[in-house]
Amino acid sequence: MNAVLITGATGKQGGSLIRTLISRKSPLEILAVTRDPSSASAQRLKQLSSNIKLVEGNLDNPADIFRNARAQTSSPIWGVFSVQVAIGSNVDEEVQGKKLVDEALKQNVKYFVYSSVDRGGERSWDNPTDVPHFLRKHHIEHHLVDKARGSGMD
């Protein structure tokens, strides 16, 4: 069995992805990253399936996230779903996103899905925009593509 590491597991995007994987009876082991595995929302999530393993982690330290994830599974970590909190927080979304990409590459993750925003359809890739939150996502996207090129990560 392969494992997928999902950030934002107790949030809207990560939680929705996990519920979808469970409802479709995905054969993947789900490594649900949460700041507090003992929280009520994390415990409710875990009750959805025996395939869900809670992984304590902070996006400021992706190496710890992977170390904690590996303690929860013997399966290879095949994929990562990455979403960062940005608006209204005191975190550096861009630093977190880039560090997670870099650590996933070190860990030989095959697939990396980054939750971003559209900045103009076909022009989105070349349109960094003046909206700070969107610009940070644009930088993470480019970092992911640049670093993954030739690495075996899709």
Notes on the structure:
This protein has 154 residues and is α/β, with parallel strands linked by helices. The protein has one domain (3-148): Rossmann fold (3-Layer(aba) Sandwich). It has 5 helices and 5 strands, in the order βαβαβαβαβα. Strands 3-2-1-4-5 form a 5-stranded parallel beta sheet, sandwiched between helices. It is globular and about 40 Å long. The two termini are 19 Å apart. The mean pLDDT is 92. InterPro entries: NAD(P)-bd_dom_sf, NmrA-like, NmrA-like_oxidored. Belongs to the NmrA-type oxidoreductase family. Residues 3-144 form the NmrA-like domain.
The CATH homologous superfamily is termed NAD(P)-binding Rossmann-like Domain
CATH topology, by name, is Rossmann fold
From the coordinates shown, what is the CATH architecture?
A: 3-Layer(aba) Sandwich
Oligomer: single chain
| Structural class by secondary-structure content | alpha/beta
Poorly predicted ranges: none
**Overall geometric form:** globular
Briefly, what CATH class? Alpha Beta
Compute the number of structural domains. Answer: 1
Level of helix content?
25-40%
How many alpha or pi helices?
5
Question: Order of SSEs, N→C?
Answer: EHEHEHEHEH
Rg (CA only) = 15 Å
Describe the protein's topology.
Elements: E1 3-6, H1 12-23, E2 29-34, H2 40-46, E3 52-56, H3 62-72, E4 77-82, H4 93-106, E5 111-114, H5 132-148
Parallel strand pairs: 1-2, 1-4, 2-3, 4-5
Helix pairs in contact: 4-5
Quick recap:
With 154 residues, this protein is α/β, with parallel strands linked by helices.
